[in-house]
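A student in our group prepared the protein record below, which I am reviewing. What it holds is a sequence and that sequence's fold in token form. My question to you is simply how this chain folds and whether the tokens agree. Do not assume that whoever made the record got everything right. I have pasted the whole thing underneath without changing anything:
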Amino acid sequence: QVQLVESGGGLVQAGGSLRLSCAASTSIFGFNVMGWYRQAPGKQRELVATISGVTSYADSVKGRFTISRDNAKNTVYLQMNNLRPEDTAVYYCNAKDWRATDYWGQGTQVTVSS
């Protein structure tokens, strides 16, 4: 049973930074793609960033967020800089294995005050 555990969320003022972590219970080499999604109240879950051999970002976070991975720690990170109130959401870690099976973390709340 694969488990993904997020941490690092919290309350921050606009312009501040947070770093989210997603620790996997198994080697992340077994995943084809890992990424971060977010869901704001009343909105659909949206893709924020992914990492495989390359990284990709939603237009709304380009230049402000950076996704990275530490294979030795089986952990994926999301460094979020210059946060805006519209970044407020629950952030979820996602992993897709080579059979396209999705795994999700429980989510971590990020709140950005203006």
Summary: The chain has a mean pLDDT of 96. DSSP finds no helices and eleven strands in the chain. The two ends are 40 Å apart (CA to CA). The first strand starts at residue 4 and ends at 7.
